[in-house]
Amino acid sequence: MQTKRTIFGNKGLPYLLLAPQLIITGIFFLWPAAQAVRMSFLREDAFGMSSTFVGLRNYTRLFDNPEYLNSIKVTLVFSVATVVLALGFSLLLALAVDRMIRTARGYTTLLVWPYAVAPAVAGILWWFIFNPTIGIMPYILENIFGYDWNHALHPDDAMILVVIAAAWKQISYNFLFFVAGLQSIPASLREAAAIDGAGPLKRFWTITLPLLSPTTFFLLVVNVVYTLFETFAVIDATTEGGPAQATNILVYKVFQDGYVGLNFGSSSAQSVILMGLVICLTFIQFRFVERRVTY
Amino acid sequence: MVENQRWLDIAAHIVLILGVLIVAFPVYVAFIASTHEPSAFIRGTIPLLPGDNIAESYAGVFRGGVASQMSVPIGVMLTNSMIMALAIAVGKIVISILSAFAVVYFRFPFRTLAFWLIFITLMLPVEVRIVPTFQVISTLGLLNSYTGLTVPLMASATATFLFRQVFLTIPDELMEAARIDGAGPMKFFKDILLPMSQTNIAALFVILFIYGWNQYLWPILVTTDDSYQTIVAGIKRMSDVVDSEPLWNYIMSVTVLAMLPPVAVVIFMQRLFVKGLVDSEK
Fold first, then answer.
1. Which residues pair with B70 in a beta bridge?
2. Widest CA span of chain A, in angstroms?
């Protein structure tokens, strides 16, 4: 690992400097993670008085449990829909801003601020707009399309609601990175293609999109991580996993089974599975995502 | 600009204007709702034009109490959120800059191990280890305390990596010169490294402030006592009223106030915000 050519010779000082970080990591990250692994092999009795070792039973039971399998399916649908919507919409906006010269900064300011809105607040905002009794969207849907929107009753409506809220929150982040990615594509390439007679659409498919792929891939990983973990608040503030488990994504189920339902063994097994998932995603992010270092 | 195509420019403007409208729409609706009287919501749909009750809505949430369905006046929640956001931002920066200094400017046994231990924090978001983390917090007696709200969130791999990158780009000659002049490590850190990392610190502070302000699951886990309630976690409780009509104008006033500080930070410090965002993803 890289250091400086010359270094300070102190023996104890570096440990002292690292101590706060390592102590917090140890107590609040490593210890709980180890506990989760341990508890995932145990089964507690109903009063939490004693626990017995049950091997992999907590895991095998999970995969026999239709609710858990449903949660995996729900997570997939939610994740894919949110990522596609958030990436597509922000790429469109970034392409449009990239054409602007004088107004680019103004538009950017008007598009980036949702980054600062908490996921929970984003959830509340859309939940209000889609409120079945007084919301503006159900009113429009009812009167123009004759559709009876009710996310408290219809599973599909609930899914659409959480996808919109989660994607809305992520647009500004993706937008900023897409704009930066577009700006790093040399204008000469596009000009050359234009001289050779390639139209805007052709240039987009053959030049812009391929050269943008490192950015897109990076954003893909970041957005998947976002939909899998940080959307907890969106779900909790809107549907709470309902109706009938329709929006109960994996990370929300860990919370419901463990913190609300007090089923520690099962919740811990789910935690361990999710940790495995984060480790894979972090690995992908660091191994394959091109380092965009610009010094 | 590659070529002059008017229809493309017009299309781009239309896309952007629609985009801005879609992005702003929910906040507009929330703000309008906060300017009406509770009775405005009983007939039919949400109003789309401002009402005349704005002063009363916001005064109501600051008073708190039964009239606005708030168990905690909003001043308390805003203060708690501010304490949490500032403490997390400052704490993360201090802790990370010290660790980065140790990793870059010293060579010592277990250096790589320490670096990996920091890296691991990236892989363990609170959401995936809810139950055991809660047990640790309650064993240590940190429930309902500012320590419990802030300290566990202060470890940060991203911030450490960022400062490591910054330090690696600082020329070696500076440190050699400082050593020749007889400066010890802490003097070098204080007089050379800190001033040279100023903009990075400021940019990171913006990102971390937003991160701290927007915490949701953590305050829910750690606080049961209303006096430690943060505003983002508090909205949910307000909108959860079961036995009566929700008072939408108050709920939306709180929502608007919950968004205001971080959104203002992004708008007024846009340059630092963008820098912080891009830096911390390197």
1. B65
2. 78
Inter-chain CB proximity A120 and B175 less than 8 Å: no
Report pLDDT digits (tens) over B90-147. Answer: 999 999 999 999 999 988 888 888 888 888 887 788 888 888 888 888 899 989 999 9
Q: How confident is the model at residue A234 (pLDDT cuts 50, 70, 90)?
A: very high
Distance between A120 CA and the closest CA of chain B, angstroms:
7
Residues B112, A122: C-beta atoms closer than 8 Å = no
> β-strands A42-44, A51-53: how paired?
antiparallel
* The dihedral formed by the CA atoms of A150, A154, A159 and A165, expressed in degrees to the nearest 10: 10
Among the partner-chain residues A89, A110, A267, the one whose CB lies closest to the CB of B131 is: A267
Single-letter amino acid, residue A130: F
pLDDT, one tens digit per residue, over A126-155 is 999 998 888 888 888 988 888 888 888 899
CA A16 to chain centre: 35
In 3D space, the residue among A130, A223, A204, A94 whose CA is nearest the CA of residue B19 turns out to be A94
Task: Judge contact between A230 and A278, C-beta under 8 A.
Answer: no
Question: What distance in Å separates the CA atoms of residue A89 and residue A100, rounded to the nearest whole number?
Answer: 17
Let me know: does A150 contact A138? Beta carbons within 8 Å: yes
pTM of the predicted structure, to 2 decimals: 0.90
CB proximity A162 to B under 8 Å? no
